[in-house]
Amino acid sequence: MARRPRKRSRWPIALAESLLLPCLLTIATRATAADAVRSPDSGDGSALAADPVGAMATIDATDLYLDLIINGTERGLVHLGYRDGTLWATRATLQQLGFMLPTDSPDPVRLDSLPGVQVRYDAEQQSATLTVPLKLLHLSTSVLNAQSASVPHANASPGALLNYDIYATRDTQGGASASAYTELRVFGGPGTLSSTGLSQTSRTSGDWHGRSVRLDTTWSMSFPERMLTMDVGDTLTGATAWSRPTRIGGVQFGTNFALQPYRVTAPLPQFLGQATLPSQVELYINGMKQYSGQVPVGPFQLNAVPGISGAGNAQLVLTDALGRVSTVDFSLYNTQQLLQKGLTDWSAGFGFVREDYGLRSFSYSRDPMASGSWRLGLTDQFTASAHAEVTQGLANAGVGGDWLLGHAGIVSGSMARSQHDGLDGSQLSLGYQWINSRFNFGVQGTRSSSGYRDVAALYGSPSPRLSASAQAGMSTDGFGNFGVSYVHLRYLEQTSRYASGYWYKSLGRSASISLNLNQNLDVSRDRSVFLSFSLTFDARTYMSAGVQRQGNRNLFDASISRSLPTDDGFGWRTQTQQGDGSHGGLAELDYLGRYGQTQVGLVNFGGNSSAYAGASGALVLMDGHAFAARSIYNGFALVSTDGIPDVPVKLENNLVGHTDRHGLLLVTPLNAYQNNKLSIDPMQLPADVRIGHVDTNATPVDRAGTLVNFGITPVRAASVLLRDDAGKPLPLGSQVRQRGQPGDPALVGFDGAVYLDTLDKHNVLEVSLPEGGTCNTGFDYRRQGDGIPQIGPLTCAKKGAP
Questions:
Q1: 97 part of a folded domain
Q2: Which UniProt keywords apply (predicted)?
Q3: CATH code (residue 776)
Q4: Which of 298, 313, 334 is the last residue in one of the domains?
Q5: How does 643-671 read in b/e, with b if 16+ C-beta sit within 10 Å?
Q6: In the prediction, which pLDDT does 695 show?
Q7: What's the rounded Cα separation, in Å, for the pair 457 and 453?
Q8: Does the N-terminal peptide bond of residue 669 adopt cis geometry, omega within 30 degrees of 0?
Q9: Rounded mean pLDDT of the chain?
Q10: What local confidence, expressed as pLDDT, does residue 782 receive?
Q11: What is the CATH number of the domain that holds 92?
């Protein structure tokens, strides 16, 4: 323990302080800067600099410069005083360390006089440890598991693609038909141009009749950093949950959250706590661990994606540096209906309504229309929405919102008004939903007045006068899952009401049984009951059997099938149906290969037999080469190994194929705007190549391809054996340069061998010997098989050039 010096020694101490204080300040600044990296509240050296020289002389205390630890966190070198076996600190020092002191506190302050503060002084280590109640400290809140705002850089290489889906049938009555759905896509830096079409032909009474129709032609361009997409051509207008989209030919521009798939748009539950010591924090939601990490001293906020929908229970487990465990329980409600506070989702469209879609290729309304939708997270508990649309003689606008009632569920509502040719109308909607792991309940209702119109009603079906639904379900451990539902639809001259119920029960791991009932509440005879049983044999093979009563008819059907594998392989299914004097069956064989999917089958029902066949896939043109593949509806990549064939390529460490004779492999599908890890095995490459990297992230844009190159370049490499004029190997460490080649010299190893990988057809080597002097030699490079050739031994002449 340090002792107080006598008065006659005070002036040497003051002199030492004046000489050493600049050095101590430098050390303290560096120490606290290093601690600041570990803790946001660790200070920046100002705690040491705050005290003037001799600050402790007013209370006759010895000046100490100690390594201070507060609640397990190192705070660097701090100026303290020592008197009567206790430590003291000035108000300025404590305030810089984050202490909240009363205005009438003495200066300096005896540390153990502060309420709840425990002090431990280690004279040998010249350190002090304080345990301080958090109520005395002003610490910033640490945010754990903060959402990353990084956006992967997506790109598209120039290319074209044709998706096709062909289907044909022929029956025993002489009838036949064929259809083909196609999508032609051109992509590159400026965006993606896509056009779809449908062609059909059929034969009846010996004559063939056919027609073709264009469906959609759209050019799309996206801006991932701003989550915006622009579509020009045939597209759908934006809509809210209580409005209807309209198919138009025009321009649509707005938010596209799919451009940042790593971003969570729904509000994240925030779990608040505080740690007196550095601690380990773990979050469990419904018993499943969702997060584990370290938390510094002070208050903290943990953001977490719950991984559940609806109501749930969360548990926060805090284990401090001393091994003490504390647990806090929370209730939460998670939903995707809401937007995070401040997040906006909007769209705006202008164009002409598409008419006779699927029947005529170029049929559009004469009057233009405009539409706009908007959603904003006003708070994490309330998301507001609005929608408006206008066309000749019609104006429609409305507002709505979704409100989270704590843990009691979500209430949704909207109100819209319209005016059409002088006729006013309104639409009101209200809904409520609550779910958890065992129960679910929801009601939804929309009522429209007779004069309510939207753009979709002018060119298609009117909106229902009344649309109402309700559903409830329950999950039990012993009796399975139960549920009931009710649907009510009312149009101008038609009303339909249905009630239904279901029961589902698992029988072990491989079997299940279910019962479904459906009743038309307006027609008592319109009733159906379906009882089914299913049995799984393995991951791909299963069978099912069922009995159905619909009206006065009884039907029995049974089937057994084997699904297609994820890689190449076959699948099949057979089915039989009996009931009311009729019987029939079906047999089908499917094949999924690298270049697409095919199917063939025979079917017989009601005495009519037919055969069918189909094929689907894609043709891709990129980098001057054509490829066949499965149908592509997402991003993909063309991997190039710079002409080297048969190189294994992996996607997320799973082998997906080998490069062809041109050193190319088409890899599909990839997730658009996400990092898809592609890699190659360098051990499968020739020895005389240089590899830029063996793995990379491919990030394609939506429905487009990107070219992936691993930077493989061929090299002229050889192991050259060098000898001196006497025929002995050149000394170890001799430096070899290629005449005319920049860069560092190569070193001669054992037996006079040197490895060179930048050789030309003719090479001159200049060698600097360790003992001084130089020698020269030359040779012509000739490739010898697939390996690295060995050249020499060559004589390195000390005089003259070769």
A1: yes
A2: Signal
A3: 2.60.40.2070
A4: 334
A5: ebeebbbbbeeeebbebeeebbbbbbbbe
A6: 92
A7: 6
A8: yes
A9: 86
A10: 81
A11: 3.10.20.410
